[in-house]
Amino acid sequence: MAIIDTLIGTAGQWVTTSNPKATLLQPLDWLKKTGSYAAVNRLIGLAIPFAPRNGFSVEEMRPGYVRAKIKLKGNKNHFGSLYAGAYFLVAEIPGGVMALFDLGAAYTPILKEMTLEFLLPANSDVTVEFALPPEAVAAILADADATGRAKFTLEGILRDEKGNHVATSLAQYRVRKKGFQAQA
């Protein structure tokens, strides 16, 4: 576990110190950005092999923010649009990713409940964005440090490639602090 915790911390540092707008015109910045996202997606694939097999990837991360994508290819349902399970996959994993990278490897994220409201069929890849303001992250950390656990809610807007709002997710997460011992 210590190796994974170190990898998560290192990948998190790479991501947070990389320039998300870097292009090939800034080759070193571009390599750092693309390398850090490759590392994050590889870690996700090691933890949840189902995710990369189904076309899931983190597209952008920074403190308190994550954007992820699921590909339509390989995830079509019986009438050619995105399968419901693929919506769930792209809406669920980013909450754990945020918890690991914003809170740190000392905290274990757990999904407690999730609902999806389907608005339109998606006939393309779908992206979702999540954000937690710094005050919310600080409150989660304070609660988990004091009690060994904390809860938070993430709402995601899922969009197709044309920008259409195709679904909304609402997820209830809990985090547990590893090794927490209540003070007597």
TrEMBL record:
Lineage: superkingdom: Bacteria
Pfam families in alphabetical order: DUF4442 (PF14539)
InterPro entries: DUF4442, HotDog_dom_sf
Protein name (database record): DUF4442 domain-containing protein
